[in-house]
Amino acid sequence: MSGSLQVSGAHVSQESGVDERLDVAAGILALLADRTRLALMQRLSEGEADVTTLTEACGAARPSVSQHLGKLRLAGLVSTRKDGRRVVYALRHGHLRRLVHEALNVADHQISGLPPHD
């Protein structure tokens, strides 16, 4: 009987871990669902950039870009470093680069009518 309780307890623990994982992933995808933030992440997937470069790359107003970058930074998706007076942004890790790349690949398939593949 106690073995059953331990398994049950472990199961609850695994479920809460799965729930947390899904919640965090959904939050990341929700942040990337914004066109401006996705454009910023696409540009950052090519390498570090400052706000001026990112503003030019995504075509949004500088205050808007700064707000979006703040959200991405607070969510832990981008990091910053100072380079003199400039703040330089970068993706936190390669998983984000691949996530953005794959989302854009899916879009390419839908736009061009290419069949899905693995």
Number of strands: 3
Q: Helical content, roughly?
A: 55-70%
How are the strands of the largest sheet arranged? 1-3-2
Indicate the structural class. mainly alpha
Low-confidence residue ranges = 1-8
Mean pLDDT: 90
Number of helices: 5
Short summary:
The chain is mostly helical. The chain has five helices and three strands. A three-stranded antiparallel sheet has the order 1-3-2.
What does this structure look like?
The chain is mainly α and 118 residues long. It is 69% helix and 12% strand. It has helices spanning 2-32, 35-44, 51-58, 62-74, 94-112; strands at residues 49-50, 78-83, 86-91. Strands 1-3-2 form a three-stranded antiparallel sheet. α2 (35-44) packs across α3. The longest helix is centred in the first third of the chain and has 31 residues, at 2-32. Mean pLDDT is 90; it is low at 1-8.
Describe the secondary-structure layout:
Layout: H1 2-32, H2 35-44, E1 49-50, H3 51-58, H4 62-74, E2 78-83, E3 86-91, H5 94-112
Antiparallel strand pairs: 1-3, 2-3
Helix pairs in contact: 2-3, 2-5
